[in-house]
Amino acid sequence: MQLSENIRHLIESSPKGDPDQQGRIGSGGYTAEDDTVFQDVMIGLSLQKNILLKGPTGSGKTKLAESVSYTFKQPMYSINCSVDLDAEAMLGFKTIEQMDGQTAITFVEGPVIQAMKKGHILYIDEINMAKPETLPILNGVLDYRRTITNPFTNEVIKAADGFKVVAAINEGYIGTVPLNEALKNRFIVVDVPYIKGETLKSVLIEQSSLKDEVIIDQFVQLSADLFTQVQNGQVSEEAASIRALLDTCDLSIYMPPKRAIQRGIIDKLEDDREKSAVKNIAETIFE
């Protein structure tokens, strides 16, 4: 991903957190036709803004977050939201340990606390899958205060320099709820579009094990046709997921492409009409 000199300077001058703390740094690799998507995310984070990535499933939101971690050279701590998400999953939990022959209650820090204390990156995936009453605990973390009072220990934690927040959202999916305005206003929103054409081809070559360019070109055409069907409301965004397409490419090394599409894409769908639509497209491309 190409970055201008002034953006690189902004990134390099941004605080990086505690270099002595070990954590997982993302692998990078996000690719998009529009370079401004990645650039705008990096600018916003360098200016200490929270970033909300909005886009369809499989459009590369998590890969973008990984690339943020890679570019900043900062570890990323993740929260995977669901209806079961609670304060313990975000902040941590108390446990009983044996220390020097004595029983002691200790607190195991969760991803929010770790990222704040170390000045690293917090990634909140599918934030609109969480119950609305769960997320207000993060309000102070996400605004200018950058603080939280841990309800389990009463410790007041202020984020260290370098702390950054990236969240991702899939709108309109079953189980999701609209973000309330107070929460959404704490973010800069960046739309993450589908990857298409030559950009998609380069992603499939780089990130899948499939190297046959003829078959890769056919998968690129499959993706384009599925995207058209998504726009027309004929199939769900899940059918056009780039993540599913990468899985399908890997499978096609060891089985015929149409069978790989069946396993990697079609069988994930619930609606019989969607399954038939994808199957028909696949049969026109892979004879």
Automatic annotation (TrEMBL):
InterPro entries: AAA+_ATPase, ATPase_dyneun-rel_AAA, CbbQ/NirQ/NorQ/GpvN, ClpA/B, P-loop_NTPase. It comes from the Bacteria. GO terms for molecular function: ATP binding; ATP hydrolysis activity. Pfam families: AAA_5. Residues 1-21 have a biased composition (Basic and acidic residues). Residues 47-193 form the AAA+ ATPase domain. Residues 1-29 are annotated as: Disordered. Belongs to the CbbQ/NirQ/NorQ/GpvN family. This is MoxR family ATPase. It comes from Jeotgalibacillus salarius.
